[in-house]
Amino acid sequence: MCLRRPGRCLYRCCVAALFAGLTLLATADQPQLLSDASIEGYRELYGEQAARRLTAWQNLIREGNQLSEPEKLERVNRFFNQVRFLDDIAHWGKEDYWATPVEFLISNGGDCEDFSIAKYYTLRVMGVAEERLSLSYVKALELNQAHMVLTYYPNPTAMPLVLDNLINSIRPANERPDLLHVYTFNGESLWLSKKGQRAELVGTSDRLKPWVQLQSRMENNRVNIQQSQERQ
């Protein structure tokens, strides 16, 4: 999804994906900080550059806990926008795959969902409240394709800020006329979206099959890390 070439990633596919139901198997509210031993294991499996990206991510999280929320947004957006854009077919061999932040960084690539998911979970573990964050399905009008961005709400009725891998500047949704907002969701809820704002609550986010699968993998990873640390 979210290819940068018009004619692919059709808008209707984005909408249809929202209602592919699946029972919620597990939740992973935040990514767990990686131990030095875990990063060393990733180094052995995926190489020095992968380990360096993971270490830089962990340092970002630790340093970011001391920052204001606007500074956290800027740092996180800038950090992840350095990662390569790669579409799912080329990168994962699948039509639509939502990567965990670790998968995204290890492979140094992903599409718009992967950028948005990594920013979402990183800001959560840096202390930004869930109700201030949403993953937003939009249509990128100039590219004529579906797209995903992260939106940040300073308060429930505020115009959200948009964190986007297409541009580095963080702007209010009403200053992004190139994006048509459709749906938005976070760890709990799913809303219709209008002009960037949450317009109507339509259910819970476990109606999104890729989101449920992502959370299940993250929970499995969390358990594996915990078990590994207990054995040490």
Automatic annotation (TrEMBL):
InterPro entries linked: Transglutaminase-like_Cys_pept
Protein name per the record: Transglutaminase-like cysteine proteinase BTLCP
Keyword Signal included in the entry's annotation: yes
Organism superkingdom: Bacteria
One Pfam family per UniProt: Peptidase_C93
Keyword RNA-binding recorded: no
Signal peptide (residue range): 1-28
Keywords: Signal
